[in-house]
Amino acid sequence: MSQQQLGRGPLRSRQPRPDPPAPDEDPSDASPPARFVGWLGGLGAAAAGYGVFQFLFSVLPDSLDGSAARYVISGVSGLATFVAAWLAAALLRARAAAAAADPARAAAVGPAAMAPGAPGPLPRVFASAYGTLVDQVSVVADPERGRLTGWPHSLGENTPSRPTPVGTAYGLHIMLDLGVPDGGLSTGDLVDTLWRLRLPDGGWSARSQGSEARPEVTALVLGALARAGTSADRLAAEVDRCTGAFTRQLDRAGLESTHVVTTVLRGLLRAAPRCEILPGLREALADGAISDPRRDHLRCWGYRLQPPYGRPSPLHTAQAVVALDRAARVLGEDTDARSARARTAREDGLRWLLSCPDAPHDTCPDLENLHEEVRRPRTDDPSRHEVLNVRHFTASWLVRALLSPGALEIARADGLEDEWRVRLDGAVAAVWAGQSDGIWSWGRGDSTELRRPMWMTYQGLSALRAHAVWMYQPDG
């Protein structure tokens, strides 16, 4: 059995690619200039030039100085027509090839170029995502927990769509990002549902984790509740339960997982920014960085924070950069050695992401989605393991890391501003290419069946929104 099957490393899956152009696309849908140029190019540049030559030779008056003059004028005109037709057809073919190779960029750039001042496609994507989530929200009357309003782990599940803590927490994040433009959905109902989904002994867990609370899921829910306005006093007891269970004795596997530690760190920085455990988690994350000899010995992260670390991972490096950046803004960065190590590790992680040697950067291996397993011994039977399957939308994490405050300044200081822009543009293009009407899908291995996980749509929308805010340049 492979290491990946044993849960010792992440499983890789290819980055979702945009659908190819439909083979039966109607050419009549093209604009009139494009149809004309295509028709002219279809005749052949030589045929067009010869036609012009024949026409001019037949209509030029005999008063010109002999037939030689008419031949010269007609020949030059025909040659000019040949060159113009050939160049126009070549340009049209080049544009079509570029659009087929990068439909996301063509869709994003094309409308703006054709209609200055017109709204871009992003508002339409946000509106479509909101409409889909409102249409597919699940409302269940639970005999023990009362009315539940939220989402399962993925949209369109075949089983009864009972809200789950993970799906509803990410849905709440999406609604807060989109601003809930109408009364079709109440964030208050989502907040109440998350509290009702709390386990009897406190905390929250993923659907596959059973009835035992886990720190990464609890921190995710607490972060969403805090962002929605829940008071620190109400969250305090759950924060204590979360941190009390996140120790090496009780959850060694979680403390050695880059994904788990970064998730807990981000969630608690929102829900309890003065929590005593936070400096220690930041230090553990910084100390878990590894040196990569293939990229100038820059420090980065694997999927584990303790040996065996696993291979250097763009996904986990981006997650660590985002978590350490948020910790620096909330906790501050003093001049002590621990803060300095965390800052140096974060900056090295950014430089490592900028040093990707492959191209093009919208399909390079650094953007491959990942699948990893977090395995923990079960408390009721330590000989057996609880397995949490975690899928990662890598491109969205790279966008967030490259847009973190200070990333561009580091790139400029190192003379890497061009690399920063190219890699950011590539990651954004990969994020955009994965959506359809504002919803992102995850393929199930070799199967043609697609899942539409709530977390993936949240991460996609969040990355595009952050990039749009970064790129905004008001007129004047």
Structural write-up:
This protein has 476 residues and is mainly α. Helices cover 54% and strands 10% of the residues. It is built from 18 helices and 12 strands. The strands form 5 sheets. It has a 3-stranded antiparallel β-sheet. Helix 1 crosses helix 3 and helix 16 runs antiparallel to helix 17. The chain starts with 10 loop residues before the first strand and ends in a 5-residue tail after the last helix.
Please give a quick description of this structure:
By secondary structure, this protein is mainly alpha-helical.
Give the helix/strand layout:
Blueprint: E1 11-13, H1 32-43, H2 45-59, H3 66-101, H4 103-114, H5 122-135, E2 138-142, E3 146-150, E4 154-155, H6 165-178, H7 187-196, H8 215-227, H9 232-245, H10 252-255, H11 258-271, H12 278-287, E5 290-292, E6 298-300, H13 314-331, H14 337-354, E7 369-377, E8 385-392, H15 394-402, H16 407-413, H17 417-433, E9 435-436, E10 439-440, E11 442-443, E12 450-453, H18 454-471
Antiparallel strand pairs: 1-7, 2-3, 4-12, 5-6, 7-8, 9-10, 11-12
Helix pairs in contact: 1-2, 1-3, 2-3, 3-4, 6-7, 6-8, 6-18, 8-9, 8-11, 11-12, 11-13, 12-13, 12-14, 13-14, 13-15, 15-17, 15-18, 16-17
Percent in helix = 40-55%
- H/I helix tally: 18
H-E order: EHHHHHEEEHHHHHHHEEHHEEHHHEEEEH
- Beta content comes to 5-15%
Biggest β-sheet description: 3 strands, antiparallel
How many strands? 12
Low-confidence stretches: 1-37, 99-114
Tell me, what's the shape? Answer: globular
Distance between the termini: 62 Å
**What integer value in Å does the Rg equal?**
28 Å
List the strand order in the largest sheet.
Answer: 1-7-8
Q: Structural class, please? A: mainly alpha
Q: What is the overall pLDDT average?
A: 83
